Each structure stands twice: as structure tokens, then as C-alpha cells.
């Protein structure tokens, strides 16, 4: 996942007010908006405080305050259990789900989904079996063979504000179970848009965002990346709309009367309505639940390569602009394969979502979700695509076992993204990327100065809402750690190590210790050359982290420093700048300045 809005808001709770429903819980990272420059810069500079009577600036220039422990929660004890994940009710003594079969009926007027979920286990199980739920109405739990009801309870009676409720089902030598449920209009994973909120303003739209722990608000599941699942899904939607998923599209057809394919989600009279159609999907590779994704709306597409399409709302202007922006997608896939091994997901399609999507991108396998702000007209938005593509190897293929090891997803992916960008767009562009990340890392450490636990790579997140502690640290400190290893052993050796790492652990979920043990086994003596414990368990930025070195990076940072002395860049100095150059410049400007420091002698 790549977060792409400037930290303009003092806390995640303030950011929540921007979005009308469920994705309000998400927090932003940095901006890649394209605007008219230098006019945009002029506006930014004029908005910088120049009031001499305003007094000193706030005590910290951090864009967000440190996280307070009183914002954290703990999972209420429902029964003695061995936890798999601090963010899940999943019990380690229970079998992990291997396959889920979904029948989903989309009711746009009520912004709800009627669902039937068939869960398959690798072995039969007797006794309690626990799943995660949040904001779900559970109608019944059934034996799939006899369709007789099975006993179940939801605990705690009052749902936990972050983790929801555990659904505890009593099984008796069962390897499968059916759960009939209904989502809430406030489901944290679903964003419902009315027709006026869409581009063409003719039809409604809905899309998902399940990371980190929101899949449980669509269907009951073991909502932890430790439980990798295959799935198939039948999406019953209005005939005028089209569905896409993080899965292979198998068929689009009329509902089959009397087939039982609704599997109890709703009556046949609803499922087989004349105005309904069913889109069938299949995900044959095991993925963590947070990568479950779909979007339903008035969609169109353009082919941009032999294994890539770009989808968006069916507006020719948007589709054509997106197709131009992402025309180089196949080149990036080939670079990724050269660096990291075969692309194992068959297709790499992209969906440009409506502007309410609060992230830069989400790495759903086979169908990456993107914000429309990445369409800049100069192909630089492809760097967001590079990040989400890199996840195809690091994050999707190998996944952090829990969010406490999130750097294994995002640190590796940030490293892989920059290698792809370097190969496709050159070393200067990659250096800019590293420079922006370095500034973000410094700011993130400042943000957590009163709770340095979350400046570690390997964190303790017991009782913590993972959405509340998103930051650049797992991305940029994780990148810096891998870059440090590369510098120590050399790029050719590190490239071979990365390929071996991916081939060894693909389609698995691992933790930091597993990675470190693999590193020490394959790079003998590395623990004597790099303080691995300091990097993974230490707070702050290690002394052997490195700011990037490049002429363009140095020039931009120098110009930002000169602004502090009252000098702004001349037109000729910024004539060839694009979004990233401006972003690096703006990120390094002071937050406050006296009016006397600004001389109106350049672009203003």
C-alpha cells in the first residue's frame, strides 16, 4: 500500500472527517498531486505564517502528534486461547482456513451485502472454532451437508470498537461450515458511492479496502495474514454494473434459478431477479484476507499491455489518460521479473478508483487499486504503480505474519520499487524517491518521540489499532535496513539473496526472526558486520542509515535551505521539475518563517 497525501492534518482522527464513511479510519502519508507550478508553490509560500506577532511556532514541527497510549485498546478476554495475532481472535489451536466460497448479493439502496460464506478447513475439527467479525449481522450458521443449524455465540456482547466480535461456532467433526450474514452500512471495509458521487453521475459504485483488519466487516474470517486462503466468489449485482476482483474473472452470466448458488444469502426471488447478473471469480493462489478486494460500478477498460488492463469509471477521458500514464507497465513487470523472479499472478491489471479512495494505491493481487491523483500526464504516476507491482513479490507472495512485522511487506517493497524505478527511469529519479523517503522517516520518528516503540521495525502492537500507527517507518526504515545490507555485501550478492529469499518463502507468511535466520544462514557473518538487533528492535534511526547522494537531490535540498535565508528559486532553476522534485522541495521548506525573511525577487 502506498499512502499519498501531505500530512496536513494534526491527527488521524482529523483525517477521518474528510471521508463520509467507512474508510474514515485510514491515515495519509504524502502527496503526489499534480498542480500548476510554480503558481501552486506561490500559494503554498504565501500561506506560510509571516505574522510577526503570532509568537513562536508550536513546540514541534511534526505534522502529527505522538500517539497516546490511551488511544489503544485490548482484545477483551472471551475465552482462554492461544493468540495467533494481536489483532485477531483467531486461536492457534484451531485449524487455519484454506478456502472460502462466497455468494454475495449487493443491495445498493441499503448499502449492504447479503452474504453466504462457506469456510473449508484442512482437517475435520470438533469443539469451538473462532472467526473474526465486525459490524456483521449473523443470521445463521449451518452444516453444509445437512443444512442443519450449528450453535454459535458472538463475544463480547458489546462489540469491541476496533476488533469487533469473535464468532465462536461449535463444530463436531466438521471440515466445512456455512455462515449467513449481512454487512452494515457502516462496514469499515466498504465505501458506497451514490450516483452523484461518481464521474458520470448515473450509477452507484462500491469498492473495498480490507487492509489492515477490515475483511472481517464483509464476511466472517480468520482476519490475520497468518491465515492464507484461496477463494471463489459469485457477485450478484445490478445488470447495468460490472464487477472486478483481486481474482480471475471466470464468467458473467444470468443467475441460475433453482441452482442453490445463493447458498442461503437471500431468496431465489432476489438472487434471480430480471435486473440481476452474476460475475464469477476465482483466486487459485493463497492470499492473506486483507488482499480480498472488489469494486462494482459503471466500469470501462483499456488494454495497456499483454497482461495488463487499466479500468476506471466508464469515462473515455479518464480511461485514455490512465492508459497513457501507465503505458510502460509491461516494461516494469519485465524489470521486476529480472530482479526478483517470475511474476506468479498471471495478470497485473489496474483500477483507477473515484477520488474518495484515500490511498495512493493498494496492492490487491491481479487488480491494483489506484487513486486518480496518480494520473499526472507525465508518466511519473507510474512510480506508484512500481510500488504496487513490487508488492507482487514482497507483500503478496511473501507476507508479514502479523502487522507487528509490517516492515517485511513495506520495507522490502519500497526497496524493490526503487530498484524498478532506477532501472526504468534512472538513478536520479530513484535518488529523489529515496530523498523524499528520508525526510518522511525523520518526520515519522519525530511524530513518535513520546512512544518510540513504533519507531522499531519489529514492534509490539498488543492492543493497538494498526490503522492508528501507520507511518513511514516500516517503509523507510525497512528500506534503509535492506539498503544497508546491500552496501555491506554488494548489489550482485544481495540480488541473488533476494531471489533466493522470494523463492524460498513464496506463498508463506513469515515474521522478522524467520527473515533474520535466513539472512544469517545465507550471508555468513552478517551479524558481525551489521547490528541486526539494533536495526530491527532498536528505536529511532540507526547511525549507519544513509541519506541519499545525488546531484539533483543535493540541489533541491540546497534550494529549500536557501529559502530559509529568504531566497526562492528562479524560473530557470525549476523549469524541468516534475511532481517529485516539487514534493522534495516542499517537504524540506520550514513550517514557519518571518515576513522579513522572504524577498520577493524570484518566482513570486
TrEMBL record:
Compartment(s): Cytoplasm
Keyword Cell inner membrane appears in the UniProt entry: no
Top-rank taxon, per record: Eukaryota
Keyword check for Hydrolase: yes
Cofactor: Zn(2+)
PANTHER family hit by this protein: LEUKOTRIENE A-4 HYDROLASE (PTHR45726)
Name of the featured protein: Leucine aminopeptidase-like isoform X3
Gene from which the chain derives: LOC113708612
Amino acid at each position: 500500500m502506498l499512502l499519498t497525501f501531505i500530512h496536513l492534518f494534526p491527527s488521524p482522527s482529523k483525517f477521518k472527517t474528510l471521508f463520509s464513511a467507512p474508510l474514515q479510519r485510514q491515515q495519509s502519508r504524502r502527496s503526489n498531486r499534480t498542480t500548476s507550478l510554480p503558481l501552486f508553490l506561490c500559494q503554498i509560500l504565501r500561506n506560510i505564517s509571516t505574522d510577526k506577532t503570532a509568537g513562536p511556532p508550536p513546540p514541534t514541527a511534526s505534522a502529527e502528534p505522538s500517539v497516546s497510549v490511551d488511544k489503544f485498546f485490548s482484545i477483551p478476554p472471551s475465552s482462554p486461547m492461544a493468540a495467533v495475532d494481536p489483532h485477531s481472535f483467531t486461536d492457534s489451536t484451531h485449524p487455519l482456513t484454506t478456502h472460502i466460497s462466497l455468494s454475495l448479493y449487493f443491495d445498493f439502496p441499503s448499502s449492504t451485502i447479503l452474504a453466504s460464506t462457506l469456510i473449508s478447513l484442512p482437517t475435520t475439527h470438533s469443539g469451538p472454532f473462532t472467526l473474526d467479525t465486525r459490524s456483521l449481522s449473523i443470521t445463521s450458521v449451518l452444516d453444509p451437508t445437512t443444512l442443519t443449524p450449528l450453535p454459535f455465540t458472538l463475544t463480547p456482547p458489546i462489540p469491541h470498537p476496533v476488533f469487533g466480535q469473535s464468532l465462536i461456532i461449535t463444530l463436531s467433526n466438521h471440515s466445512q461450515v456455512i455462515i449467513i450474514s449481512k454487512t452494515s452500512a457502516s462496514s469499515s471495509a466498504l465505501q458506497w458511492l451514490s450516483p452523484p458521487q461518481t464521474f458520470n453521475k448515473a450509477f452507484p459504485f462500491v469498492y473495498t479496502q480490507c487492509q489492515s483488519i477490515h475483511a472481517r466487516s464483509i464476511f466472517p474470517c480468520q482476519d490475520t495474514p497468518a491465515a492464507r486462503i484461496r477463494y471463489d466468489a459469485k457477485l450478484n449485482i445490478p445488470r447495468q454494473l460490472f464487477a472486478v476482483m483481486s481474482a480471475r474473472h471466470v464468467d458473467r452470466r444470468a443467475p441460475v434459478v433453482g441452482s442453490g448458488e445463493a447458498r442461503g444469502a437471500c431468496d431465489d426471488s432476489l438472487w434471480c431477479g430480471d435486473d440481476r447478473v452474476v460475475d464469477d471469480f476465482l483466486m487459485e493462489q493463497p492470499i492473506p484476507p486483507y488482499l480480498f478486494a472488489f469494486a462494482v460500478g459503471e466500469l470501462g477498460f483499456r488494454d495497456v499491455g499483454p497482461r495488463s488492463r487499466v479500468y476506471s469509471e466508464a469515462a473515455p477521458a479518464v480511461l485514455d489518460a490512465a492508459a497513457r500514464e501507465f503505458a510502460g507497465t509491461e516494461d516494469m513487470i519485465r524489470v521486476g521479473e529480472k530482479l526478483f523472479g517470475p511474476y506468479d499472478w498471471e495478470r497485473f491489471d489496474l483500477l483507477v478508483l473515484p477520488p474518495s479512495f484515500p490511498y495512493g494505491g493498494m496492492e490487491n493481487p491481479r487488480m491494483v487499486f489506484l487513486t486518480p491523483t496518480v494520473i499526472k500526464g507525465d508518466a511519473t504516476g507510474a512510480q506508484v504503480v512500481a510500488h504496487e507491482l513490487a508488492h507482487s513479490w514482497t507483500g503478496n507472495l511473501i507476507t508479514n505474519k502479523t502487522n507487528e512485522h509490517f516492515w517485511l511487506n513495506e520495507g522490502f517493497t519500497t526497496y524493490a520499487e526503487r530498484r524498478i524505478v532506477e532501472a526504468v527511469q534512472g538513478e536520479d529519479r530513484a535518488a529523489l524517491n529515496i530523498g523524499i523517503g528520508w525526510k518522511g522517516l525523520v518526520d515519522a520518528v519525530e511524530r513518535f518521540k513520546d512512544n518510540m516503540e513504533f519507531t522499531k521495525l519489529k514492534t509490539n502492537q498488543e492492543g493497538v489499532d494498526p490503522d492508528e500507527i501507520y507511518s513511514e517507518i516500516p517503509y523507510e526504515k525497512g528500506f534503509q535496513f535492506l539498503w544497508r545490507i546491500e552496501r555491506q555485501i554488494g548489489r550482485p550478492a544481495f540480488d541473488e539473496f533476494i531471489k533466493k529469499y522470494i523463492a524460498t518463502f513464496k506463498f508463506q507468511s513469515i515474521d522478522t526472526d524467520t527473515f533474520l535466520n535466513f539472512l544469517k544462514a545465507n550471508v555468513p557473518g552478517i551479524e558481525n558486520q551489521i547490528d541486526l538487533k539494533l536495526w530491527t528492535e532498536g528505536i529511532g534511526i540507526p547511525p549507519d542509515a544513509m541519506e541519499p547522494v545525488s546531484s539533483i537531490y543535493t540541489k533541491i535540498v540546497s534550494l529549500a535551505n536557501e529559502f530559509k535565508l529568504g531566497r526562492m528559486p528562479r524560473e530557470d532553476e525549476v523549469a524541468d521539475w516534475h511532481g517529485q522534485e516539487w514534493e522534495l522541495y516542499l517537504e524540506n521548506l520550514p513550517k514557519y518563517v518571518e515576513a522579513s525573511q522572504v524577498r520577493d525577487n524570484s518566482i513570486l
